[in-house]
Design goal:
Blueprint: H1 5-42, H2 53-70, H3 74-81, H4 85-98, H5 112-138, E1 148-149, E2 155-157, E3 160-165, E4 168-174, H6 176-186, E5 199-202, E6 205-206, H7 207-215, H8 223-233, E7 236-237, E8 246-251, E9 255-260, E10 262-264, H9 273-282, E11 293-296, E12 301-304, E13 310-311, E14 322-328, E15 334-343, E16 346-353, E17 360-363, E18 366-369, H10 370-384, E19 388-391, H11 402-410, E20 417-418, E21 421-423, H12 428-437, H13 453-465, E22 474-475, E23 478-479, E24 492-496, H14 503-513, E25 518-521, E26 529-530, E27 540-542, E28 548-551, E29 555-558, H15 573-577, E30 588-589, H16 594-598, H17 602-614
Parallel strand pairs: 16-19, 19-24, 24-25, 25-30
Antiparallel strand pairs: 1-28, 2-7, 2-10, 3-4, 4-13, 5-6, 5-8, 8-9, 11-12, 14-15, 15-16, 17-18, 20-23, 21-22, 21-29, 26-29, 27-28
Helix pairs in contact: 2-4, 5-9, 7-8, 10-11, 11-14
Amino acid sequence: MKMSKSFLLLLALSTAISAQAVQAGLLKHSAKKLSVEGLRDVYSGVRFHYYDSKERLTIVQDFLRTVELDYALLPLKTKRIGLDFNKLKAEAIDRESKEKNILITDANRTDQDERNRISFLQAKSNMEFLDRMQALVAQFQDTHFGIQEKISRPVVYTGIRLYRIDGKVVVGGIEKKLMSLASKLTGNDFSSIAVGDEVLSVNGKNVEERVSELKKFIGSSTDEFGDYQAVRSLTIRNHNYEERNTVTIKFKKAGLFKLPLFANITKDSTPRMDAMTFFAKLGIPSDASTIGLNYDKATKQWLDGAISFEGYAPTKLHLNLKGLLEMTGDDGSPALRSGYYIKDGKAYGVLQILTFSTKNVKTGDVTMSYLDGIRSFISELKENQLPLILDLRLNGGGNANFPAAVLSILAKENVTYPGPTRGYRMTSYIRQLEESRNYQEIAGEDQSNGLTLDELQDLLQKTVDEKRELTPMMSFQNIKVDEKIKGFNNKIVALVTANCISACDMMSYLLKSSKRATIIGTHSNGTGAGYSSSSELNTKWEDPFKVLETNVPNFLFGIPGESAETTVFDENSAEKMCSENRPTFADIPYAASMLDVAKNNNGWLQKAAQVLDTLK
């Protein structure tokens, strides 16, 4: 029987009303239960929101479930780092299940002393839970996989910065404004603390023991990066707060000093009342919004803002250059620096690539594309037949397309190099993302450079049909000579440390696999998974209570194949080629020395010049 449109509309409306009635009945029966749950969860905190045991456990379980569903590296981490995910999951849930609630009775809510006592204990409990979550994520040993509070915890810090130099922890920088303020607050003279002095202990513990303790909070694809961040964390961090308002440091030359701690609570930041309650109890003062620290979520690092440290910093290599030109990126921070290092009457071109995260660069009133900024200096070196020192030591990564483009600029004439590779863990997310992204109404398009979309579709379908967890690694491009530079045959050395992350990892292994540069230093970071998303889909996670968030790495990347002709590699190629926890090691070892501390990284430049002089 054919029904009229009006009858169908009436039927749909009555069905909706019936559904609403049923829903209302269900809500009525469960309202009492829901309100009790809400009272327990929302009102347990005395002066701020307290993460009670049920909330903490829900967050841990929800996070681990997301890792299981979306984390691209999960199948590889067993072989790479010996990760037992089931054990990690069971231990995390068990640990959180045993944590007790800290609650106040209704009768004691009017007792100010008890309110103060419970508030501090709840603040401490919140901080310790956030620490446990940070340590949990760090167990995956993935620099790309960190976790952040949606409302960030403040940094606590002193006026000195520490670095690993010649295998020791030493004072690298001193902030004189802060040290002067510390002297006024304490009445102590800190002037004997000097750049280059070795640190022996921190808060009564051997410095290496304390570094090892802090490493467990740092997600790091290789140990060197974890060590770098842990050493920095000795005097500046926003986790693992100790119940004290000072840090006691024993220096080899200066002796024992108790330095006051400051909390970086800026005017434009959202205050965390639990952290402020914790600091108030311990007597940690705010820096009155004058210092300015910024958290870079891409590199998972706190960056100095208005702080002006005198002494060593890894970025200060450019202070040794003649004809220095600095180009800032879209965010106003230095992106490229170029100039000339002069030694024994010889000139060497130096290019610091500090980021791959900007589209444009600017110097003075002149703005150009990021790649044109690099081209302009390489053209200058090509014209004058000068060798290149490429400094990648402090590059936190960015656009994954840039490393291949930079190698194209540096490529020798008439040479084609294999490009980086990519792979997938076959998850629900990847199926939804890639199947819609690669859909074609007209198949068989002409793509002569790298994997075609048809081949990609077939490969993804085969992985599904065979129920494999990982696809083979794939090459989507070959790297040819840049059309503007038309070949650069000059000698190149590249300076690399574990602070060369993500896209910079790609740059390192492209330089090594192409044999286009001799690499000097230690090794790159060792990251091998990134983030692929669309306007509709991503793998950003946040817990149901809006406490924490993270981006879950959802695809693999890795080293090039041996031939530019190969576009799809063997079935186990993800295990062989993904660069996670497998950094690019330097051809010639070098680590920061006291010469670098004393003369703004001049040791790096001297080593680079020495190596260039021996290259044919």
